[in-house]
Design a protein that fits this description.
Rossmann fold; alpha/beta; 234 residues; five-stranded parallel beta sheet
Length: 234
């Protein structure tokens, strides 16, 4: 079975990998495990930057020399130490994410010295909550009181070509749009549980950048040396 480590920003991504991605990847003979970046002794998650990511990629496989490593980081508020974050401002969200992925891949491979096909970076435009806009009905089913916000959230979704285009400003990022919900949206509990209800198939249908990443992950089980790497977007 092919081993895959997915480095996430926090417990939300960790739960998403465990509950949503891992069961499906297992069907393709891929054992996926989520890892959080260690930011201090005994603390994992948050504090994301290039140096810590490099260390995490280097340490992730440990005794498994043939393991693959991927990431699940938000484009929104991504630390400026990541290559391409500053000079890609102004690009369409998915193009910007692809540009950063391409540069991050080259940077990490050079720093860590791993085989290029073993590192598959993913930057989610604009953030994890984008995926939850794939099905507003299923999202609002999480809490009975959320139904009254269905129309407002449906309009947010209808105003863009796909959920990954929802704006990334401090006021209009996907997670900010969910602040109207009462009881309030809790990232670590509502997020992964809603993604399970929405289903991976629906998320892949609605979110093309996410879909491309997931398809690359599926390929490593059958064709370990033929993983398509992100193309540079200028």
């Amino acid at each position: 079975m092919t081993r895959l480590f997915i480095i996430g920003e926090g417990p939300t991504e960790e739960a998403f990998v465990k509950a949503v991605l891992a069961p499906v990847l297992r069907l393709s003979n891929i054992h996926a495990k989520a890892l959080l970046i260690e930011t201090s002794r005994g603390h994992r998650g948050g504090g994301l930057n290039l140096e810590r990511t490099t260390r995490a990629v280097r340490n992730a496989p440990q005794q498994y020399d043939d393991a693959y490593v991927s990431t699940m980081f938000d484009l929104y508020a991504l630390h400026k130490t990541f290559p391409g974050v500053t000079d890609s401002v102004g690009l369409q969200a998915s193009n910007r994410a692809a540009r950063i992925e391409h540069l991050l891949h080259a940077d990490i491979v050079a720093r860590v010295g791993c085989r290029p096909e073993r590192f598959i970076p993913h930057i989610q435009p604009h953030e994890f909550e984008s995926l939850l806009f794939s099905d507003i009905g299923k999202l609002c089913d999480a809490e009975p009181e959320w139904d009254k916000h269905r129309a407002a959230l449906s309009k947010v979704r209808a105003d863009v070509a796909n959920p990954e285009w929802i704006n990334d400003s401090p006021h209009t990022a996907p997670s900010k749009r969910l602040e109207i919900l009462r009881p309030r949206y809790r990232k670590t509990t509502h997020g992964p549980a809603s993604a399970v209800r929405i289903t991976l198939d629906k998320i892949r249908e609605q979110c093309p950048h996410f879909r491309q990443w997931f398809e690359r992950l599926l390929h490593i089980g059958a064709q370990p040396l033929a993983v398509r790497l992100p193309e540079s977007i200028s």
